[in-house]
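Q: Could you predict the 3D structure of Porphobilinogen deaminase?
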Amino acid sequence: FLARIQTDSVVEKLKELYPDVHFEIVAMSTTGDKILDTALSKIGEKSLFTKELENALEKNEVDLVVHSLKDLPTVLPEGFTIGSVLKRENPHDAVVLHPKHKGKCLQSLANKSVVGTSSLRRAAQLKKRFPHLEFKDIRGNLNTRLKKLDEKDDFSAIILAAAGLRRMGWENRISQILGPDDCMYAVGQGALAVEVRARDQDILEMVSVLNDSDTVLRCIAERAFLKHLEGGCSVPVAVYTEVKNSQLYLTGAVYSLDGSDSLKETMQTSISSDNQVVDEKVQRVSITALKVSEAPQDAAVKLGVDLGNLLLSKGAKEILTVARQLNDAQ
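A: Sure. Here are the predicted structure tokens for Porphobilinogen deaminase:
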């Protein structure tokens, strides 16, 4: 459902910009959609939601694929690139309560209330912040998760990305948006990305008009940070970014599985632009953003790498290694 809504929204934008082009939407399902009974962090395949779609791109069966950017690995297979990153929706996580708890928030839920989340990143931060709650895995697409919440008594609340709920038109179910003090978000969360064949100049040019400069720069910094830490679905890494007065701020953090051990730092860089032309052959963390000046893109990459190095110098590697081993052992 959500994938279809997201794809439709991108195609709508392209139709407005290119009224003479005919767009046809091809629906496909992926391994990630099919394996619903296993925690994502356990499956261990980075390209879970992307492999089948990339096969179709490679065979020229489709020309562009719309993804949630947070599902895309920081390194894409040879021959593919992200040709555009659209203006980001609210990137934060949201609390959805069981109907009987209407009006409450995480803080006011009873002791030992069970909260569902399939994300190690959310669980690590929230365990530390709300020690009176218990966190359990919940998988499935948005519809399935909401159903599990509403129709059974297993969960008092579940945590989902606000952007997905919004796109589905289920904003009324959001009881609380978690700010950065409660729960920082995943790399790329809330942004849609269009994946294309890297050598396909015309299509790259076409989708580049969808790029939102601030979102591109924030996501480049976030992805560069994650890549430098070698993080993926199976480790708790979280970020928070903002652009103010031509400065890009990146806060990044790593956590132990129970949140007791963590490292968090913030750095900033100038992204004022000198409007240099962009070299279309240069990918930055698998993003080719024509229409966004080069200097700020390079600054964003450097910011992510620098912040990654700062955390590594303080012991991030050890925290993540233990988290990975514990998660694999469970």
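Q: Anything worth pointing out?
A: The chain has a mean pLDDT of 92.
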